[in-house]
Q: What sequence folds into this?
């Protein structure tokens, strides 16, 4: 900077070759250019405002951009105004290529560096746009117009043209396609007219360079079709596909290996998904809902049976009713309960029948399977409850293997919770006769099986039939099997000392001999209060062959409580008539006399019988 300032202020300035000066004449206020080689002598009214500066030297195949270029005549000489000042195009630009070194006139500026010309290889292009009207090689270009400059070639820039982007060709491999969209109405490379926004595919292999009116959306890869995979396609608009078939908007179809080995969905097609083949072995079958007919139209509401061995694709709209199913293999003890959906052979809609084994069975589309049944083996002591679904009648079946009929079903017999608890408990009616609580043996009762109960020796169970309104007495040892309308008579007996009601629950009435113990509070005639512990030996007198005699033993619901109350009343009445000393001396005789009474000779009787239920008290202690 210091050296330049000194040279500009010097009187004599040596200008080397290819250098130039800008000299300001202060008298005329004009700046002129001085070009070397020369020795410049500066006058007093002159001032060097620029230089010496090296001239602009543009190598071959290079260019630069000059701002505010000087006006030149047809011979290339600069034009001067009337004052001798070089005229420039203010605000304009000019591109200069390889030439002899040249100076910059006053007002001119180097707007860009010296840049090599852009060389485009094959399969590459420049997208250009005209910024102002011009004409080149007899062709007129209008501002806003766009075009492509394709390689190979060297692009010569112009100030009227701007570069938008560099585009490389897309290489299409086998089984690939390029998806294009028209920017405006145009004619593609194949000569087809395209409207603005229209999309199409280019399937030819090799390099593809889009035109200025085309826009690349994506490169599509073909789907490889095999025997196990098909394509589910949907039409977005009405058109004719590559196979020549007309497709309506919204229609769906499959493309399989029979149509093509590879497939690229068109611009008017939508890939819904991949469909896997359904393979049936010789032991399988399936039912297809809404199958297609031979012309490809859906038979809505229809069903089609397909058996193996077979392989097929489900077309759009088709579905499997229950997936792929195995053929039903029926043994000798197996059966299928089926029902007719519609008229089938000799059956009307709604008819039921059994298909019995041994057999292999595939249900036709007119038949539906309701249930798979097995023969139920029943011993003599086992049974089930069976209900007729047409009449509602319930019966019991036991002692043989039984297969339910088409209009029969297993019936669940319900019992009261207390009876259920007694049946499921591990209670021994004889050994645990004084226990007031019972533990459960675990598990739940199968309510469809016949209710059975083992009556122990020297005991009885009463069963009441609510349909026939009759009761029957079963004496042990015996196995009781309840009918559909029968229920156990539950006993609720008194227990504890002194006796309390509803302490012992049981299904069995023990016939004795047995004993019961009670605590009785008495008061003598001289008002002495005593607490007596009494034990009674008892048994039932019953004629098992006489139904009336047998039913009397269940006539008193709580024979323990009634017996203890009756005996305690007699004892209290007898003790209340004697003083304490006499009762202390003759307690045993007084109590036995009070309970058993005496005969005509005054002798104490040997027992005390309750006629209401034939209970006999044989001894008291």
A:
């Amino acid at each position: 900077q210091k050296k330049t300032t000194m040279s500009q202020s010097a009187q004599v300035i040596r200008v080397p070759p290819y250098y130039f000066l800008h000299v300001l004449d202060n008298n005329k206020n004009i700046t002129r250019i001085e070009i070397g080689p020369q020795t410049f002598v500066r006058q007093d009214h002159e001032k060097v405002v620029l230089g010496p500066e090296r001239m602009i030297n543009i190598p071959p195949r290079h260019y630069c951009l000059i701002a505010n270029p000087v006006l030149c005549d047809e011979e290339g000489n600069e034009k001067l105004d009337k004052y001798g000042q070089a005229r420039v195009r203010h605000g304009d630009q000019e591109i200069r290529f390889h030439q002899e070194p040249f100076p910059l006139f006053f007002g001119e500026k180097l707007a860009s560096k010296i840049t090599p010309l852009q060389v485009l290889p094959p399969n590459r292009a420049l997208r250009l746009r005209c910024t102002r009207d011009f004409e080149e090689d007899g062709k007129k270009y209008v501002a806003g117009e766009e075009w492509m400059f394709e390689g190979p070639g060297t692009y010569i820039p112009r100030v009227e043209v701007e570069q938008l982007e560099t585009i490389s060709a897309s290489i299409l491999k086998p089984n690939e396609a390029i998806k294009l969209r028209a920017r405006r109405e145009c004619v593609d490379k194949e000569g087809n007219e395209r409207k603005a926004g229209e999309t199409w595919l280019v399937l030819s292999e090799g390099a593809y360079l889009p035109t200025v009116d085309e826009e690349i959306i994506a490169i599509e890869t073909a789907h490889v079709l095999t025997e196990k995979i098909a394509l589910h396609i949907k039409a977005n608009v009405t058109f004719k596909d590559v196979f020549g078939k007309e497709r309506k908007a919204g229609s769906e179809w499959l493309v399989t290996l029979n149509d093509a080995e590879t497939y690229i969905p068109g611009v008017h097609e939508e890939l819904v998904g991949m469909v896997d083949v359904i393979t049936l072995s010789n032991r399988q079958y399936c039912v297809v809902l809404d199958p297609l007919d031979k012309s490809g139209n859906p038979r809505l509401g229809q069903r089609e049976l397909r058996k193996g061995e077979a392989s097929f694709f489900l077309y759009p709209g088709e579905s499997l009713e229950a997936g792929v199913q195995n053929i039903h293999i029926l043994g000798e003890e197996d059966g299928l309960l089926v029902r007719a959906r519609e008229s089938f052979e000799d059956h009307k809609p709604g008819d039921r029948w059994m298909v019995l084994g041994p057999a292999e069975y595939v249900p036709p589309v007119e038949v539906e399977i309701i249930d798979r049944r097995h023969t139920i083996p029943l011993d003599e002591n086992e049974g089930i409850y069976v209900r007729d679904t047409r009449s509602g009648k319930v019966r019991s079946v036991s002692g043989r293997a039984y297969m339910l009929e088409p209009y029969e079903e297993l019936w669940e017999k319900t019992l009261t919770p207390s009876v259920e608890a007694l049946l499921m408990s591990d209670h021994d009616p004889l050994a645990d006769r004084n226990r007031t609580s019972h533990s459960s043996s675990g598990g739940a009762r199968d309510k469809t099986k016949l209710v059975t109960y083992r009556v122990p020796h020297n005991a009885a169970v009463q069963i009441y039939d609510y349909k026939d309104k009759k009761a029957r007495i079963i004496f042990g040892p015996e196995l009781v099997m309840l009918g559909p309308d029968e229920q156990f008579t539950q006993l609720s007996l008194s227990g504890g000392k002194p006796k309390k009601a509803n302490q012992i629950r049981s299904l069995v009435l023990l016939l004795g001999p047995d004993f019961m113990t009670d605590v009785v509070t008495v008061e003598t005639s001289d008002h002495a209060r005593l607490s007596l512990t009494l034990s009674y030996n008892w048994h039932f007198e019953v004629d098992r062959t006489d139904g009336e005699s047998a039913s009397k033993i269940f006539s008193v619901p709580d024979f323990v409580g009634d017996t203890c109350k009756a005996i305690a009343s007699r004892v209290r009445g007898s003790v209340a008539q004697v003083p304490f000393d006499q009762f202390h001396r003759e307690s045993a005789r007084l109590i036995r006399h009070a309970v058993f009474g005496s005969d005509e000779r005054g002798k104490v009787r040997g027992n005390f019988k309750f006629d209401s239920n034939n209970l006999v008290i044989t001894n008291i202690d």
